[in-house]
């Protein structure tokens, strides 16, 4: 195998990797934000709101990400939603991740001791303050392992964006493979790279978890 | 604007294509159960080398996006002299990816059984083989049913990726449909509906099995 092709296509691959990271981070942050909104709305919304959100969650979780992307990117223009590949991909990632994040937040909120919330009400905190000062800080700590876990799953979903021509790492690898007929080498290198990348961010994630839950471990 | 007749017309070709979605995910999980059982044995073995092999297997397959793995298998098979249709590469990839998750599901289920179960079996003089086949495995399998169904649902969704290598399953068929009718919205919406129906059925099956096999 000729290693020099990696040197020649290095800048492309590097820019692709940068875009992969960007998509992953933005997708995670926006998806988590939407998921959080859904979880809060489910908690405080009426029956009809809860039903609508539950249906949204079931539909998104029951359909493949690729089909969601196709609907958004190719079907969108038919209803006036014309997006470039990158914004379509980011919106797709946000929508795809939101129900999983919503479920994580929902169960984390449920795990917050009721006494804390009642104490908040007893001293006259408005509901919004209860969410911001009790549910979020206490719930986030217990949600952290699941949040880290799902954001790692999302890194792997970013490669699917290459299919709607977002020029991220997979797309650039494909480009290199097609130009130089190095399909096997290219994809194998990409696989090994991803393996290492996912291992590194899982370690970082576990370290972050330990750092944030330190106060719980030291006391128990 | 949205055309209801185009949307409804898309269902028939997509339902035909659903056979391949079910074939890839069904065969994938069946082979994945077999390979996964083998990997699980390695992961629980006393030999350090076996445990390392299992750990590497699981970490590679869970760390690399399935689309990348699919393309590696797709381009690797011909290089090592195995010329097979794309669907075989699709099934092989699905099976090995599933095996990594399934071995972890089973390992978790076996470790989740109370130690007292094994100890009681030993105490009443059961042989190790009987302890496994009569005490540990039946309970572990029952315990793992919900997660296995969940894995199958994930595989049905992941099988949309094999459209990339040209297997005519639901997603590929909806692409073809969109190409013929120039109406991507209806075609992909029909595909989404079909996936949703399959997955809701699987979820219902899972709840039923869980209810029946409750220990």
Report a brief summary of the structure:
The complex is a heterodimer of chains A (220) and B (215). Chain A has 220 residues and is an all-alpha fold. Helix content of chain A is 82%, strand content 0%.
Biggest interface, which chains? Answer: A-B, 34 and 43 residues
Q: Can you count the beta strands of chain B? A: 0
Could you tell me the CATH topology label of one domain in chain A: MetI-like fold
Give the end-to-end Cα distance of chain A, rounded to a whole number of Å: 54 Å
CATH architecture of one domain in chain A: Orthogonal Bundle
Question: How much helix is in the residues of chain B?
Answer: over 70%
Listing every helix as H and every strand as E from the N terminus to the C terminus, the arrangement of chain A reads: HHHHHHHHHH
Q: Nearest-angstrom radius of gyration of chain B?
A: 21 Å
How many domains would you count in the coordinates of chain B?
A: 1
Coarse shape of chain B: flat
Shape descriptor of chain A reads flat
The CATH class of chain B, by name, is Mainly Alpha
Distance between the termini of chain B: 53 Å
Mean pLDDT of chain A: 91
CATH superfamily of one domain in chain A: MetI-like
* Main sheet summary of chain B: none
Number of DSSP-assigned strands of chain A: 0
What's the helix and strand layout?
The complex is a heterodimer of chains A (220) and B (215).
Chain A: H1 4-8, H2 10-44, H3 47-62, H4 65-75, H5 85-110, H6 114-122, H7 127-157, H8 169-180, H9 183-212, H10 214-219
Chain B: H1 4-9, H2 11-44, H3 48-63, H4 66-79, H5 86-112, H6 115-123, H7 128-158, H8 170-181, H9 184-212
Your description of this structure?
The complex is a heterodimer of chains A (about 220) and B (about 220). Chain A is mainly alpha-helical. Chain A has a domain at about 25-165: MetI-like (MetI-like fold, Orthogonal Bundle), CATH 1.10.3720.10. Chain A is built from ten helices and no strands. Chain A has helices at about 5-10, 10-45, 45-60, 65-75, 85-110, 115-120, 125-155, 170-180, 185-210, 215-220. With about 220 residues, chain B is mainly α. Chain B is built from nine helices and no strands. The interface of A and B includes residues 59, 62 and 199 of A.
């Amino acid at each position: 195998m000729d290693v020099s092709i990696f040197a020649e296509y290095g800048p492309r691959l590097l820019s692709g990797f940068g875009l992969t990271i960007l998509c992953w981070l933005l997708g995670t942050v926006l998806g988590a934000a939407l998921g959080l909104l859904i979880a809060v709305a489910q908690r405080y919304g009426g029956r009809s709101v809860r039903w609508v959100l539950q249906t949204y969650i079931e539909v998104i979780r029951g359909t493949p990400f690729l089909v969601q992307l196709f609907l958004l990117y190719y079907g969108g223009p038919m209803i006036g939603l014309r997006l470039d590949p990158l914004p379509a991909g980011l919106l797709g990632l946000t929508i795809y991740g939101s129900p999983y994040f919503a479920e994580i937040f929902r169960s984390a909120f449920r795990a917050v001791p009721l006494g804390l919330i009642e104490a908040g009400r007893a001293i006259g905190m408005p509901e919004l303050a209860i969410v911001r000062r009790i549910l979020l800080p206490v719930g986030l700590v217990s949600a952290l392992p699941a949040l880290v876990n799902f954001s790692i799953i999302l890194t792997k979903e970013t490669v699917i964006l290459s299919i709607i021509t977002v020029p991220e790492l997979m797309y650039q690898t494909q480009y290199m493979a097609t130009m130089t007929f190095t399909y096997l080498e290219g994809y194998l290198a990409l696989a090994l790279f991803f393996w290492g990348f996912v291992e590194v961010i899982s370690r970082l994630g576990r370290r972050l978890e330990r750092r944030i839950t330190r106060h719980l471990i030291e006391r128990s | 604007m949205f055309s209801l007749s185009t949307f409804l017309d898309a269902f028939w070709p997509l339902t035909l294509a659903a056979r391949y979605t079910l074939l890839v995910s069904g065969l994938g999980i069946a082979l994945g159960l077999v390979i996964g059982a083998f990997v699980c044995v390695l992961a629980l073995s006393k030999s350090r080398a076996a445990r390392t092999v299992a750990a590497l297997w699981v970490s590679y397959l869970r760390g690399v996006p399935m689309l990348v793995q699919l393309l590696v298998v797709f381009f690797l098979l011909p290089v090592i002299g195995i010329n097979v249709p794309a669907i075989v590469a699709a099934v092989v990839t699905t099976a090995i990816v599933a095996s990594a998750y399934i071995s972890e599901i089973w390992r978790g289920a076996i470790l989740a059984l109370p130690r007292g179960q094994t100890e009681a079996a030993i105490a009443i003089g059961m042989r190790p083989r009987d302890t496994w086949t009569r005490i540990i495995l039946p309970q572990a399998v029952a315990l793992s049913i919900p997660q296995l169904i969940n894995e199958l649902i994930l595989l049905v969704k992941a099988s949309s990726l094999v459209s990339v290598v040209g297997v005519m399953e639901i997603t590929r068929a909806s692409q073809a449909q969109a190409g013929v009718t120039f109406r991507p919205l209806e075609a992909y919406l029909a595909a989404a509906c079909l996936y949703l129906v399959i997955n809701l059925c699987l979820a219902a099956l899972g709840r039923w099995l869980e209810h029946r096999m409750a220990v």
